[in-house]
C-alpha cells in the first residue's frame, strides 16, 4: 500500500489556482444550455440556430485542442496557460455583449477554441508538479471545481440572469475569471520545458503513432461516451417517463453536484492509497448497478431517483478521478502537453458522437415518453466494462514503466 505524500504549501496554492480557473471554464460551458429558454426568446433564435451555437463550442474546442497539441510542450506552461485563459475571458466578454445570433456564435467559437484546451494544460501542470502518489488527491480536489459549478455557480448565474439579464450572468463569470487569473499570475511559478522537440506537426503525429497513448485515448473515449449518452436525454426521461415536474429537476442535479463535491476528494485520496485501478473498478461496479436499475424504469419515487443518481455519480467520480490521475503517468514529460491536448480533442469529439448515438437509439412516443431507454442502459454498461478493461491495461503499463525507472 502506497503511503501518500503530503502537499507543500506551494502545491496547495497551485491546486487552488487551477481549481478556480476550471470552475469558470466549466460554469461557462454549462450556462448556455441552462439559458436556452431565455436566449430563444430574447435573441429570437430558432431551435436550429440555438443548436448551432451550442455545438460551436465543442467543435471549436476539439479542433483547437488538436491543433495546439503540437505546441503544448514547446512553451513554458504558465505562459501557455495565461494566453489561453486570457483568450477564454475575451470570449466570455463577447458573450456578455452579444446582441445577435451571429455575434453570440462567434463568441462561443472563441470561448471553445481557448476554453476547450484549459483542462489539458492544467493536467499537464499537475503531472509536472505532483508525483503519481499525489495525483489522485489532486484530481479529486480539481474535480470539485466541476461539482462546485453545478451546485453553486449555475444556480447563482441563473438567479442573476432572471433578476437582471442573461448578459450579467456572463459578466459574473468574467469577474470570477479575473480573480482566477490573478491567482495564477501571482502564485504559480513558471514551468519551463528544457527538452528538445521536433517540429509541431511532427510532434503531433509522433504522439498519435504511439500505441500506448491510444490505450488511454480509447479508454477516455468510452468513459466520456457513456457519460454523455446518459446525460443527453436524462432530463426528458425524468419528466416524460418517470413523471417528475420540471421544478424537481434542480434537486436531482443538485444531488449530483453535492455527491461529486463530497466524493471527488475522498476517491482521490483512496486512489493514492489503494491504487487507481482498484478505485476505478469499484466505481465501474457501482455505476453499472445504478445504470441498469435506473434505465429499466424500476425506480419511480422521487426519493429513490435522488438516491439512484447519488450512487451513480459516486461511481462516475471514482472512475473519473482515478482514470485521469492514471492517464497523467503514461506520457513522458516532453509529450505531456501534446498527449493531454490530443486526449482532450478526442474526448470532445467522442462527446458529440455519443449525443448523436443516443438520438439514434432513443425514439419519442406520441405521448412524449422515451422508447428504448433500457437499451441505452445496456449500451452504457458495455462501454463502461470495455473502458474498465482498457484502464486495467493502462494501470499495468504504468506499473511496468515505474519498475523500469526504478532499476
UniProtKB/TrEMBL annotation:
<keyword id="KW-0472">Membrane</keyword>
<dbReference type="InterPro" id="IPR011701">
    <property type="entry name" value="MFS"/>
</dbReference>
<feature type="transmembrane region" description="Helical">
    <location>
        <begin position="144"/>
        <end position="164"/>
    </location>
</feature>
<feature type="transmembrane region" description="Helical">
    <location>
        <begin position="52"/>
        <end position="72"/>
    </location>
</feature>
<keyword id="KW-0812">Transmembrane</keyword>
<feature type="transmembrane region" description="Helical">
    <location>
        <begin position="339"/>
        <end position="363"/>
    </location>
</feature>
<dbReference type="InterPro" id="IPR050189">
    <property type="entry name" value="MFS_Efflux_Transporters"/>
</dbReference>
<feature type="transmembrane region" description="Helical">
    <location>
        <begin position="375"/>
        <end position="394"/>
    </location>
</feature>
<feature type="transmembrane region" description="Helical">
    <location>
        <begin position="113"/>
        <end position="132"/>
    </location>
</feature>
<feature type="transmembrane region" description="Helical">
    <location>
        <begin position="249"/>
        <end position="267"/>
    </location>
</feature>
<feature type="domain" description="Major facilitator superfamily (MFS) profile">
    <location>
        <begin position="14"/>
        <end position="399"/>
    </location>
</feature>
<dbReference type="GO" id="GO:0005886">
    <property type="term" value="C:plasma membrane"/>
</dbReference>
<feature type="transmembrane region" description="Helical">
    <location>
        <begin position="170"/>
        <end position="192"/>
    </location>
</feature>
<dbReference type="InterPro" id="IPR036259">
    <property type="entry name" value="MFS_trans_sf"/>
</dbReference>
<dbReference type="Pfam" id="PF07690">
    <property type="entry name" value="MFS_1"/>
</dbReference>
<dbReference type="GO" id="GO:0022857">
    <property type="term" value="F:transmembrane transporter activity"/>
</dbReference>
<keyword id="KW-1003">Cell membrane</keyword>
<feature type="transmembrane region" description="Helical">
    <location>
        <begin position="12"/>
        <end position="32"/>
    </location>
</feature>
<feature type="transmembrane region" description="Helical">
    <location>
        <begin position="305"/>
        <end position="327"/>
    </location>
</feature>
<dbReference type="InterPro" id="IPR020846">
    <property type="entry name" value="MFS_dom"/>
</dbReference>
<protein>
    <submittedName>
        <fullName>MFS transporter</fullName>
    </submittedName>
</protein>
<feature type="transmembrane region" description="Helical">
    <location>
        <begin position="279"/>
        <end position="299"/>
    </location>
</feature>
<feature type="transmembrane region" description="Helical">
    <location>
        <begin position="79"/>
        <end position="107"/>
    </location>
</feature>
<feature type="transmembrane region" description="Helical">
    <location>
        <begin position="213"/>
        <end position="237"/>
    </location>
</feature>
<keyword id="KW-1133">Transmembrane helix</keyword>
Amino acid at each position: 500500500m502506497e503511503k501518500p505524500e503530503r502537499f507543500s504549501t506551494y502545491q496547495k496554492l497551485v491546486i487552488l489556482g487551477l481549481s478556480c480557473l476550471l470552475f469558470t471554464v466549466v460554469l461557462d460551458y454549462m450556462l448556455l444550455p441552462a439559458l436556452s429558454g431565455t436566449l430563444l426568446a430574447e435573441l429570437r433564435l430558432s431551435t436550429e440556430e440555438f443548436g448551432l451555437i451550442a455545438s460551436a463550442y465543442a467543435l471549436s474546442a476539439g479542433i483547437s485542442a488538436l491543433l495546439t497539441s503540437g505546441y503544448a510542450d514547446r512553451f513554458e506552461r504558465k505562459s501557455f496557460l495565461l494566453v489561453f485563459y486570457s483568450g477564454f475571458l475575451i470570449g466570455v466578454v463577447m458573450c456578455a455583449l452579444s446582441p445577435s445570433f451571429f455575434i453570440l456564435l462567434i463568441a462561443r467559437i472563441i470561448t471553445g477554441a481557448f476554453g476547450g484546451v484549459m483542462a489539458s494544460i492544467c493536467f499537464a501542470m499537475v503531472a509536472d508538479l505532483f508525483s503519481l502518489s499525489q495525483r489522485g488527491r489532486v484530481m479529486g480536489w480539481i474535480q470539485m471545481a466541476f461539482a462546485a459549478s453545478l451546485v453553486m455557480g449555475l444556480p447563482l448565474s441563473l438567479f442573476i440572469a432572471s433578476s437582471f439579464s442573461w448578459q450579467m450572468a456572463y459578466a459574473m463569470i468574467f469577474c470570477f475569471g479575473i480573480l482566477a487569473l490573478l491567482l495564477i499570475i501571482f502564485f504559480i511559478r513558471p514551468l519551463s520545458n528544457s527538452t528538445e522537440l521536433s517540429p509541431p506537426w511532427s510532434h503531433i503525429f509522433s504522439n498519435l503513432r504511439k500505441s500506448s497513448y491510444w490505450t488511454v485515448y480509447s479508454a477516455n473515449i468510452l468513459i466520456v461516451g457513456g457519460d454523455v449518452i446518459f446525460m443527453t436525454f436524462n432530463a426528458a426521461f425524468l419528466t416524460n417517463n418517470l413523471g417528475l415536474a420540471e421544478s424537481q429537476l434542480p434537486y436531482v442535479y443538485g444531488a449530483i453536484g453535492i455527491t461529486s463535491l463530497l466524493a471527488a476528494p475522498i476517491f482521490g485520496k483512496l486512489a493514492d492509497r489503494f491504487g487507481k485501478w482498484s478505485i476505478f473498478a469499484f466505481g465501474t461496479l457501482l455505476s453499472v448497478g445504478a445504470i441498469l436499475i435506473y434505465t429499466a424504469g424500476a425506480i419511480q419515487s422521487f426519493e429513490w431517483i435522488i438516491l439512484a443518481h447519488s450512487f451513480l455519480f459516486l461511481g462516475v467520480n471514482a472512475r473519473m478521478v482515478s482514470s485521469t490521475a492514471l492517464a497523467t503517468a503514461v506520457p513522458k514529460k516532453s509529450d505531456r502537453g501534446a498527449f493531454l491536448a490530443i486526449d482532450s480533442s478526442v474526448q470532445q469529439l467522442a462527446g458529440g458522437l455519443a449525443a448523436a448515438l443516443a438520438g439514434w437509439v432513443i425514439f419519442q412516443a406520441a405521448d412524449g415518453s422515451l422508447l428504448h431507454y433500457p437499451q441505452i442502459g445496456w449500451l452504457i454498461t458495455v462501454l463502461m466494462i470495455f473502458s474498465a478493461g482498457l484502464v486495467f491495461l493502462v494501470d499495468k503499463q504504468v506499473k511496468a514503466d515505474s519498475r523500469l525507472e526504478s532499476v
